[in-house]
């Protein structure tokens, strides 16, 4: 895969992860609603926000891309699982944007990890 495409994928994942932090760290009502519904408010909201920040940074650093991608996969797997079991696809009439963004981020992180798999060994 071309180097520019990989950089774009990494930046896209980082932007998705980091842009959601303002909702988590400012205790936005939608964020509080989500984490209350899954029983993780407030510590889960803040903790997952910190993990997303770390993943977003790691995925941008060439030597730690694979760590950031693995961490992103874990976080997004949890988000997708919560949507499918406790939250539902649509939250507060968002049309499923959060759910589909989690799927997109999971797929992009999987592609990134696959490309950087040589660094796992």
TrEMBL record:
<dbReference type="InterPro" id="IPR032808">
    <property type="entry name" value="DoxX"/>
</dbReference>
<keyword id="KW-0812">Transmembrane</keyword>
<feature type="transmembrane region" description="Helical">
    <location>
        <begin position="97"/>
        <end position="116"/>
    </location>
</feature>
<keyword id="KW-0472">Membrane</keyword>
<dbReference type="Pfam" id="PF07681">
    <property type="entry name" value="DoxX"/>
</dbReference>
<protein>
    <submittedName>
        <fullName>DoxX family membrane protein</fullName>
    </submittedName>
</protein>
<keyword id="KW-1133">Transmembrane helix</keyword>
<feature type="transmembrane region" description="Helical">
    <location>
        <begin position="7"/>
        <end position="23"/>
    </location>
</feature>
<feature type="transmembrane region" description="Helical">
    <location>
        <begin position="43"/>
        <end position="61"/>
    </location>
</feature>
<feature type="transmembrane region" description="Helical">
    <location>
        <begin position="66"/>
        <end position="85"/>
    </location>
</feature>
